[in-house]
Design a protein that fits this description.
372 residues, Formate dehydrogenase/DMSO reductase fold, mainly alpha, single chain
Length: 372
């Protein structure tokens, strides 16, 4: 940990910021499941596995970031239920371990079962996956709620002590998740032979239109409460948005996030958003980047500044932290790419246990001996 710029004052940095965001990205993958199974949209059934696979990759990346943040990763076994020594059920960290691993297993079962039956050419038995699909919806909400409780349950950090933290986490997750999936679907439409209906993209855009506005409303509500009431509890918010006593390291980050989110909302609300794939991808990229900053550098870091001793110790990620972050993201995207390379041929019918025989052309008749 000496290679990072984290200190005793700012003990959670870029790694935990990415962990928080990726838990939301994993929860956002359920946005494919809700329209497909609750509202029976046929266009979503063929691509629901794309969201489930994203949840698997995002959960793995979030675990990698926690491992990178631990000073002694070999002591992680203390958090494993029934093996390590933990304060269950009071420890929110233990609850986080339970819900994250449970969500990973649920998605592995759903994707594995559906892909296996398609590979075998069998009809999936609803009893083996439909209950787990509905369980994944509730579990997706729980993983980000528990993550929010990790922060708002710390009484010594007034910046996180808000009842809106869990709803904000969920709302922002339902922006970043669909944004990433839309870009993936557009890429798959051009790079593969998988048939992706326009209805799937339209449904996800409609979800983003609502959730991004709710996220902006919640953010504005917290900003109003912090600055209108004033007091010492607003010091962290004042440092974040305007700087404090000459310290303003996070000011460019948060205003970039606000600008990205507002521009993305304007683009998504435009009637011409479906006419230009470039405009749609730009809106998704801006929304994704805005939420990443808001839930990372704009949320985790200011919770430690000023410290409980009312000291201001600024934090900027070191080059080593950026390199480790890039490597974890690269490894996670490699996992997601590998999963898609396995799933798409099965979904499209190219990869089967017993492939269909190739059509044979009738052989040309041999010329008769009498023919010249």
């Amino acid at each position: 940990m000496v290679a990072t710029d984290m200190t005793d004052h700012v003990s959670w940095g870029l790694y935990i910021a990415n962990f928080t965001f990726l838990v939301g990205l994993a929860a956002g993958g359920v946005m494919m499941v809700i329209p497909a199974y609750l509202y029976h949209e046929k266009d979503m059934h063929d691509v629901v596995i794309i969201g489930e696979l994203l949840a698997i990759a995002a959960i793995l990346m979030s675990m990698f970031f926690v491992t990178a943040d631990l000073g002694r990763p070999d002591r992680f076994w203390h958090l494993i239920p029934f093996i390590g020594k933990f304060h269950f059920p009071l420890s929110m960290l233990t609850w986080d371990v339970l819900v994250l691993n449970g969500y990973l297993l649920i998605n592995l079962h759903i994707c594995g079962y559906l892909l296996y039956t398609r590979f075998r050419g069998l009809t999936p038995n609803p009893k083996w996956y439909v209950p787990f699909v509905f369980l994944s919806i509730a579990w997706a909400i729980s993983i980000h709620t528990v993550t929010a409780f990790l922060y708002c349950g710390l009484g010594g950090r007034p910046f996180w002590n808000t009842a809106l933290l869990a709803p904000r986490f969920l709302t922002s997750a339902f922006v970043s998740g669909p944004a990433f999936i839309i870009v993936v679907l557009l890429a798959l439409r051009h790079l593969t032979q998988m048939r992706i209906g326009k209805g799937a993209v339209r449904t996800l855009v409609q979800i983003m239109r609502v959730t991004i506005l709710i996220n902006i409303l919640m953010l504005a509500s917290e900003v109003f409460t912090a600055f209108y009431t004033g007091g010492t509890h607003a010091t962290a918010a004042n440092y974040l948005y305007f700087g404090h006593d000459g310290h303003h390291a996070l000011v460019p980050w948060i205003w970039s996030s606000v600008a990205f989110t507002v521009i993305a909302a304007v683009l998504l609300l435009s009637r011409k958003i479906f006419e230009s794939p470039v405009r749609l991808i730009l809106a998704c990229a801006l929304a994704f980047a805005g939420i990443w900053i808001e839930k990372g550098m704009g949320l985790i870091i200011p919770g430690f500044i000023p410290s409980t001793l009312h000291e201001i110790v600024e934090y900027q990620p070191s080059p080593v932290e950026w390199q480790v972050t890039a490597s974890v993201w690269a490894f996670g995207l490699i996992i997601y790419t590998a999963l898609l390379k396995i799933a798409i041929p099965i979904i499209t019918g190219k990869f089967r246990e017993h492939p269909a025989p190739a059509p044979t052309t009738p052989a040309e008749p041999c010329p008769s001996p009498e023919s010249p």
